[in-house]
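Quick start: read one record
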Amino acid sequence: MVHELDVLILGGGAAGLFCARTAGLRGRSVAVLEHQQRLGNKILISGGGRCNFTNLGATAANYFTHGSPHFPKSALARYTPQDFLRLVEQHGIAWHEKKLGQLFCDQSSRQILSLLESECARAGARIVSGCQVQQVHRSDPAAVRPWEVTTSSGTWRASSLVIATGGLSFPRLGATPFGYRIAEQFGLRIVTPRPGLVPLTWSAEDLARFVPLSGLSLECETQAGPGSPRFRENILLTHRGLSGPAILQVSNYRGPSDPIHIHLLPGIDTTAWLADRQRSTLTPRQALRQVWPERFAQAWCEGRCPDRPLAQIARRDLEALAQSLSAWKIQPSGDEGYPKAEVTLGGVDTAELSSKTLEARNVPGLHFVGEVVDVTGWLGGYNFQWAWASGHAAGEAV
């Protein structure tokens, strides 16, 4: 069976479904092909089952790309968090702001997926799940429908082809490198993918010291290196390493072999803080027990702090202690990989795409949206906003 239409979208996640809805509402004939039996698996598990569907403060500054930092601006400006929030409210979905502009459903992530399915139905977009793509071919570019995709549900011919197949995070949900292979097939450069928003693992030395503290959480400020963003949120010590929002955030900006720096007393001038306590008989560990859980104070101070009153510590040693408190240097052994990564860094190089339409510059009619593109948002709803904005940008162009 041969199906002919205007727009064929490969991938039934957030970006693909939103692209289908946008194109369909423009009167385009649209189909979405999803290789899984169920749509939107990542939507359903997101936000602890309540879907952190956007962030009110999303701007291009909240995204990491190996290319121009300005690339996300056009799409984000033309479909904003407020635009998606209006759609959520039109569908009667109750929501709340958790913190830092992060918006969640009051009830279930299923509501966002139902919104997308309903919008696609309203737009006349056809959705085919459990459909395996076997081959993608491009015939004469001058043809009305140059794209031919052979699948387990027949052959599809379309004027425009949109790749919305996502990245490699959460392989148990069906993530594959399919989108990258399509890009490479048509000569587009791929920025090597790696796990993003991912927990980091202890070195052997730190593992022995800190693994007994698994489950302990602290508010800290993290930074990957000079010039990179600082993130002030909680870190979580685990039996494998470091997790929590502040660690996941900094993982995007850290090179695979780079250390991270942690300010253990965020918002505090550590030199002045220690000087204030020199008038007492407190040892460093005793002073730090006032602001940290005792177990952490003991483990962190062991082998690092003199076990004598602060008043008896030489100025040079006190300055070194202040520096280690404000920039505790951790050298992770690695990260926990795609099974624990929220997103995938890298993907289709933004230099290959139009920032306005997400169309490949040298392959007319071929668009890439969502996580398959080398644009990765911070933790907290930013990646969903990129899905809506990039899907909308391509949907307006196809």
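The chain has two domains: 2-195+344-397, 200-335.
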